[in-house]
Specification:
Blueprint (H helix, E strand, L loop, with lengths): L1 E3 L27 H4 L3 E3 L19 H8 L16 H6 L7 E6 L2 E7 L2 E7 L9 E10 L15 H17 L6 H14 L5
Antiparallel strand pairs: 1-2, 3-4, 4-5, 5-6
Length: 197
């Protein structure tokens, strides 16, 4: 059994929207407060009890549950997920080393190991336009999970390495159909074609 969330707190509702604690940002942002959420796996004799601090993603749920069910993941499409069975069973290191953060179909940030590079930032739903950074912002999440101290000037090689990998990833990404736009366009179409009383 898995309990998790798809995003951090909805900060526009103030104290009623939740808190990301020391993490920066919330729902709608690609800061850690919007993306890093707790997950609880439960499975007697399957999941080893105890905290896990390895990187994982909801993208990893499908291959992990397929492994738990002793079946194969779908092979008719590329998957971005990793099998985390070893992490859950033996607290092994996670096979996930990178994560790419998108908003509105655009690559906003990329993480590699402990480092996260922000190309574009937007404070959830309160900042009307995203801010594009000429020099992307770099943070070491192990030492600075609140993303307060930009290390891009001091760690230029790390920033360039992550940026190069992120560009390749974004270019090779096979984009699926935008399900939200499809629903919105369908709803607008229904509204526009409604019979006039």
């Amino acid at each position: 059994m898995l309990f998790t969330s798809d995003n951090g707190p909805w900060l526009i509702f103030n104290e009623h929207g939740g808190s990301a604690g020391l993490l920066r940002g919330g729902k709608g942002s690609t800061w850690e407060g919007g993306m890093r959420v707790p997950a609880i796996f439960w499975g007697p004799s399957i999941v080893e009890p105890g905290p896990v601090r390895s990187m994982g993603s909801t993208l990893d749920v499908l291959p992990t549950f397929a492994a738990l069910a002793e079946t194969d993941s779908p092979s008719d499409r590329p998957l971005d997920g990793y099998d985390l069975y070893g992490v859950l069973r033996e607290h092994a290191d996670s096979p996930r080393r990178e994560m790419y953060f998108y908003r509105s179909g655009k690559l906003f940030a990329a993480r590699s190991g402990d480092y996260k590079l922000h190309f574009i930032t937007q404070e959830g739903y309160t900042q009307p336009e995203p801010e594009v950074h000429d020099r992307p912002l770099l943070f070491n999440l192990l030492h600075d999970p609140g993303e307060k101290y930009d290390l891009a000037a001091e760690e230029g090689d790390v920033a360039r390495r992550i940026a190069d990998r992120a560009r390749r990833y974004d270019q090779e990404l096979i984009r699926g159909e935008d399900q939200i736009a499809k629903r919105i366009n369908g709803a607008v179409g229904i509204f526009l074609h409604a019979p006039v009383p």
